[in-house]
Amino acid sequence: MRKFKFWRLSVGWQILIGLIVGVILGVIFSDNQAFIKLASNVGSTFISLISMVVLPIVISSLIVGIANMGDLHKLGRIGVKTLIYFEILSTIAFIVGIVIANVTDFGSMVDLSKLTKADISTYVKTAEHTHSSIVDVLMSIVPSNIFDALGSGHMLPVVFFSALFGLGLASIGEQGKVVIDFLNAVAATMFKITGWVMHVAPFGVAGLIGQTVAQLGLETLKPLSLFIVMAYITMIFFIFVVLGVTSRLFGFKITEQIAVVKEEIILSFTTASSEVTLPKLIEKSEKLGVSPSISSFVIPTGYTFNLDGSAIYQGLASIFIAQAYGIHLNFSQQLTLLLVLMMTSKGMAGTPGASFVVLLASVGTVGIPTAGIALIAGIDRIVDMARTVVNVIGNVTATLVMAKSENEFDQATHDAYVASVKAKN
User: Fold this and answer.
1) Which residue from 215, 355, 325, 203 is spatially nearest to 267, judged by alpha carbons?
2) CB-count exposure of residue 191 (10 Å: 0-12, 13-18, 19+)
3) GO molecular function of the protein, one example (predicted)?
């Protein structure tokens, strides 16, 4: 009889086992500082390993994709179309969050006296020193020093430089072929390394979720369980209704997208980081029939501009806090809040703790106490897990939609890959 090996399980099952083990360890070692530190270190190491390969993959894939596209007008058209799509979906996400918070009115059921305020001083400092103007965001796209942009991990300047470099390669013709071949090899190497790194994903997931459970404790979740439930239900609604309808309009099925990226969904949920899924999303998008030039442009850009889960959270949290304080916001005030959130969310994108920073920069404009944000800070990690999943699925949908609209999509490749995934399940 052949001996069973753990590594024969699919990555998705391994990560799921890591999640369960992490929860159990978190419960056993609740509030144990030594365990929390160890688990945090294990989780942080895994995140660092993934972050290590993200930028090389984005740079090499995007430069090659743009070089093969070789058309400045086409790149401009795709860029404008992509940003318009992102803005429409993000606005819908904000509206969905605000409307559901109003309909459920869960905030009015919360007893403020039973809630413990978490320390949000770090977010306050970030909000004070972060520019929220859309002009500032646009100005930050052009890097004065590409190496500084790479070192800081800012995605938009890297995307801008890579797009220009790709166009430059295309313009010099045969001379650029050696560079394109080199970058193709770099991308292939980075994807190979990503596969190796994924072998330690179960341990990283166990560490991250174990740390969260050990720090929070299950008891602290009870007072704000209404907000957690509301957030999860809203995000599930957005995935299957809003993204589902969007997918159907372009001839796709949201259930097939979820089946294809289920491992990335589990990984993003357990780590609460969408960045860890970026390499695999680019790879799988191409297997779904999307051209490399589209996938390597839309997905990295979406990680800044297409954060639907974060938009839902900000809409929900703003109204929830107002309800908890007994503040009634009329239609004009909520419309003002929506417009402010839309602007500040673009300015804060890519900032650590961006969703909290956006709330701090926005809620005060309609009279909601910024101190109220501290009330939900303790459960942010739990909600962050769900909103990260929405961000990931939203970017998969966006990539397919953009590819289909630009005739950069191969239906036969898509159908064959989906069929192979279904056969494995």
Assistant:
1) 203
2) middle
3) symporter activity
Domain locations along the chain: 9-69+87-424
Cβ contacts of residue 19 below 8 Å, gap of 6+? 205, 206, 209, 266, 270
Between 91-95, 179-183, 274-278, 349-353, the lowest mean confidence (pLDDT) is in 349-353
Q: Following DSSP, what letter does each residue of 281-306 receive, concatenated?
A: HHHHHHHTTB-HHHHHHHHHHHHHH-
For 9-69+87-424, CATH number?
A: 1.10.3860.10
pTM of the model: 0.78
CB 287 within 8 A of CB 35: no
Give the containing element (helix H, strand E) for 146: helix 146-152
The helix/strand/coil state of 409 is strand
Q: What is the arithmetic mean of pLDDT over 413-417?
A: 94
Q: What does the CA dihedral 281, 287, 290, 294 come to, rounded to 10 degrees?
A: 40
